[in-house]
Amino acid sequence: MSASLDLVDVDSLLTEEELDVRAAARRFADERLRPSLPEWFESASIPARELAKELGALGFLGMHLTGYGCAGLGPVAYGLACLEIEAADSGMRSLVSVQGSLAMYAIWKYGSDEQQTEWLPRMSAGEAIGCFGLTEPDFGSNPAGMRTSARRDGDDWVLNGSKMWITNGSVADVAVVWARTDDGVRGFVVPTSTPGFAAPEIKQKMSLRASVTSELVLEDVRLPAAAMLPEARGLSGPLGCLNEARFGIIFGALGAARDCLETTIAYAGERIVFDKPLSAYQLTQAKLADMSVELNKGMLLAVHLGRLKEKGTLRPEQVSVGKLNNVREAIAIARECRTVLAANGISGEYPIMRHANNLESVLTYEGTSEVHQLVIGQALTGQSAFR
Ligand code: TGC
Ligand code: FAD
């Protein structure tokens, strides 16, 4: 956060290394991403390959993983990088999360030595892009219902089905695909050049336009026995990856909120209404105060959860508390900031409407707010209300 927005001195909780990582991510976001985002969002196209290589060169891909060229940094450093990248655009953070926390993490955590050696060095360098296919057209919140299947044919696996809303799908070199087998849900490492695999891009998105989102179509995709992730069994495999990506979002969403708030404070100082700067009115100050209080509380929560993750004690329902609260508050901040800029708030000249629209996706992906409420409800009551 800029010094003035850091009302409760969250910075004092951060190490020198974490502050350095944050500074590097902020520089990249300011110099490389921010100037191009209005155009990328408007045209709904991004130079994904170039960006992946640049992010890889800076160590931002799989930065919380160890070995294979990964930076091996702590969770708070990773979260702060997500925050700074999302302050530019949630779609940019999605590129980083899906690569590092979903596709790479799945291979890093559950893969064979051969899968790890084949993919992770190239993925951490950004030379190979990954995607993560869990959601299906009819099964989003409830992945247990998935229909995509993998059946044995001799030593091979044959995959059939489709996945929907898959970030990076059309630009990916490798897809981690979750499928139903006779032995429950298993994960597969699918080179996207395999015959029968296609990834048409989803068009007409009004949110997360600076991100590639795709359908994955699998028609008799034949893979060798070695394509299965050996260490992931059942739904806990993909759900374990989601914990990682959700953690990045706890920090990331606050980046979008901070960018909205900084823009709004600057705007309110310059905009004259009824002969005075907008920032000199009590109603405006009440809005700014309430929003900055939520931003600071969100940061404290994020850093606290990061410290729990560092110790290895972070539980899934605690991740749900962070994702539910910080994304919900971030979108509330973006919408409130929009009211301060009024008509200018809807213009692409300012980042606010872009962030607000993006945060609609962030509210939905990686578990909707309702799913996280139910995870917390289950932890509180011991009763599962999903079904
Ligand atoms: P349930 O019976 O509770 O659990 C099945 C097995 O999974 C284990 N488990 C977990 N393991 C690790 N982490 C978690 N968070 C876990 N939650 C559950 C559980 O212990 C059990 O293990 P075992 O060994 O006994 O089999 O599962 P359920 O079918 O009742 O579902 C629970 C629910 C609804 C919470 C889960 O399905 C869920 O989280 N649904 C939301 C789906 C979701 O978030 N999809 C996201 C797709 S990826 C994405 O959106 C990327 S967006 C791009 C970007 O990040 O930028
Ligand atoms: P549904 O599951 O159909 O839910 C509809 C509504 O019902 C929601 O409000 C939901 O909260 C509510 N609901 C569901 N269950 C319950 C219940 N038990 N009780 C009460 N209410 C309930 N997925 C991937 O696998 N990989 C990706 O890379 C990926 N990237 C994405 C990128 C974008 C831009 C978007 C928008 C989505 C992406 N997703 C990805 C998919 C995302 O994870 C799903 O959209 C999400 O899990 C919700 O699923 P759904 O959209 O099918 O909603």
UniProtKB/TrEMBL annotation:
Residues 233-380 form the Acyl-CoA dehydrogenase/oxidase C-terminal domain. Keywords: FAD, Flavoprotein, Oxidoreductase, Transit peptide. Its cofactor is FAD. The keyword Flavoprotein applies. It comes from the Bacteria. Residues 15-127 form the Acyl-CoA dehydrogenase/oxidase N-terminal domain. Residues 131-221 form the Acyl-CoA oxidase/dehydrogenase middle domain. PANTHER family: GLUTARYL-COA DEHYDROGENASE, MITOCHONDRIAL. Belongs to the acyl-CoA dehydrogenase family. This is Acyl-CoA dehydrogenase family protein. It comes from Kribbella hippodromi. The lineage of its organism: Bacteria, Bacillati, Actinomycetota, Actinomycetes, Propionibacteriales.
